[in-house]
Structures are given as structure tokens and as C-alpha cells.
């Protein structure tokens, strides 16, 4: 006897597998969770029950029959092969995995794009800064003044951010703008006068007087944040002008200077200030690069809570890279003369670099921001790029001006 598996022919177009036992079963007792529940009544339709290999046993005319819940339940309880549970689960899993895969791919593309921007703009900044350092004089000073102005603007915006203003009263906006302009003029005054101690003191006195005489209740937080801004953004960067342009003694032993074109200044262009600035800049770049790579590779022990991503392992690798760069360049440029001086110079550059980086990280942490700005794509703001140089200029100048002549090494 042929099996009783059958088909329901609806409108003579679609065949739905159906078993006779499922039609005869009680609709109130469901044997499967796969139940179809119609949302609205279905129009009249033509229903034929056809057994395997035979004609219709009976035919129901399209008179007054409707598809009700009982028929739909019976269809849902049809043969197990009519609904493949494993295929359904697989499709659900694929639907859940697909958005995750797309998100991961989009994140990977975003990181790749950020890395390309970082490399391209980093190379552009490096070439521009290298050219300004080689040119010296007004070119170097004006470029530094522009960076100081932008950095000062970012600093005072950080001071006015919500994270810092929640615990203090920021200086008025007009005072912040005036201080940014004063900071920008400091490198120029340093080049012109050679020393700006009196100018900085006078500017600080004027700004402090304006803060104390303002309407309302002057706060010490306003005075302290403004004075630190003048010192941090204006006074400290001026030591790079004093180092690059103020130390004009020729580096006679530098081989590159012997072959330097006469139209570009000849051998006299290669001064102690130029050589010291090149070594210091290169050492800072090496310290940042090696510290980043070392932290990514073997970094496990946090260096400080100020910047959790920095590690002791990365700092040690960065110190080694900084000292090695200083020693190699000292051999190429024939300055300083001794190995001990080159190692000491590299150590000072690394210390100033880390101290400046952590200081800016502390300001950003209190401000509740990741970057000081968004001026440079892939790098953040100006302060994010020059934080390692702010304190290093004063240390490098002191080393060349005081320590080398004092100890004669």
C-alpha cells in the first residue's frame, strides 16, 4: 500500500507537503513549534487533496471554505522535511555573523586609513620641520612662532573645557586670546633681543593685572592657569631659538659642512646650534618611535596612571633608541666630541621628551579629551605633536651652553 504522504494543491500552482495524519490530528495539541499563524483571513481558494500517483480523491469547490487556524496548524505540522530546522538555524547564524563581519571590516578600513594619513602627514611635517631647521634665522623662528600660537590656542581651549572648568574658573576668553598672541611673539623677541626674561616678566605682570582688575570675583585658578600657559606655551619653546640661532659657533669638524654649497651659507652655516638641534630633534623622534614599537611588542607594566598606554618596557626601548640615535649622529656630525657627552645628550633628550608628553597627557586627562585638537589629520592637534619638544629645548640648550663647557667633555 502506498504511503499516505500527500500534497495540498492550492489554486493548482503550488504544492504544499501534507500528511493525512496531520489533517486528522487535534489542532489544540501542537507537535512542533513551527506553527504558522495568519494575521488576517485568507480569501476563498481551491483545495485539492492528491495522493501519490493518483488523481484527486475529492475536490472542494471554491464556495465557502476559508483557511482557518486549524488548516494552517496542520500544514505547519507537516512532514519534518518540509522545514529544515538546521538550515533555518544556519541562516539565523549567518544573519548574526554578517553584520559583525561588516563592522570588523569597516573598523579595519578605518584604522588603515588613519595609518595612511598619519604616515603621509608625518612625513610632510618631518620634511617641513627639517627644512626650517636647516634654514635657521627668521624662517625657523617664524615657523616656531606659528606653532606656538596654535599650541597656545589649543592649551587655553583645553583649560576652558568641561573637565577642567568643573573644578576651577577658567580665565576670560579675551585674556586667553591675548596670551596666545603674546606667546607667539616670544620666539621673535628672542631672536631679535637674544633674551626675553624682561619681556616675559612684563607680559605676565600685565596679564595678572588684567585678571585681578576684572569684574566679578577673580579666582586664583584663573591666574595660575594663565601664568602656566605663558610659561608652557611661550617661554619654554623660545629655548629652541636660543639653541638653533643663538649658538653660532661653527662646527668645524662636521664633514657635511665642508661640502655645503656656498650659496646656502657654506661651511659657516653648520654651527653648533644647527648640529645640536638636528641631533636633539632626531633623538626625540627616535624616542617616540621606539617607545611606541616597544610598548606594542613587549609592553606589560604601566608607566604611570596619567597615560595608561605607556609602559616601562616601551620607555626602556625608547631610551635605548634615543641614546643610539644620539651616538650615531654624533659620529656622523662630529659633535659632541666624546662618547660620554653623546650618551648624556641622548638621555637628556629622552627625559625631556617623556616629561613633556606626560605633562600634556595630564592636561588632556583633566580636560576629558583624547586629542588637544583636530588640526593635523591622523595626529590630532599641534600640542599632540610638539609636546615632546616643549621641555627638551631648555634641557638641550642648558647642556650645550653650561654642561659641555663646564666639564669639557
Structural notes for this entry:
By secondary structure, the protein is an alpha+beta fold. Among the domains are: 126-246, no CATH class; 267-408, no CATH class. Helix content is 63%, strand content 7%. The protein has 15 helices and 6 strands. The chain has helices at 20-24, 69-76, 85-135, 137-159, 162-165, 173-193, 197-212, 220-235, 238-244, 255-258, 272-298, 312-333, 339-367, 382-390, 392-407; strands spanning 5-10, 14-19, 47-51, 56-60, 302-304, 307-311. The strands form 2 sheets. A 4-stranded antiparallel β-sheet has the order 2-1-3-4. Helix 6 (173-193) runs antiparallel to helix 7 (197-212), helix 9 crosses helix 15 (392-407) and helix 11 (272-298) packs across helix 13 (339-367). The longest helix has 51 residues, at 85-135. Residues 1-47, 49-76 and 78-83 have low confidence and may be disordered.
- Which range does the strand content fall in? 5-15%
For the biggest sheet, the summary is:
4 strands, antiparallel
| Percent range of helical residues | 55-70%
What is the number of helical segments per DSSP (H or I, 4+ residues)?
Answer: 15
Mass-distribution shape: globular
The overall pLDDT, averaged over residues, is: 78
Poorly predicted segments: 1-47, 49-76, 78-83
Number of strands: 6
Question: Pairing-aware structural class of the strands and helices?
Answer: alpha+beta
Q: Helix and strand succession?
A: EEHEEHHHHHHHHHHEEHHHH
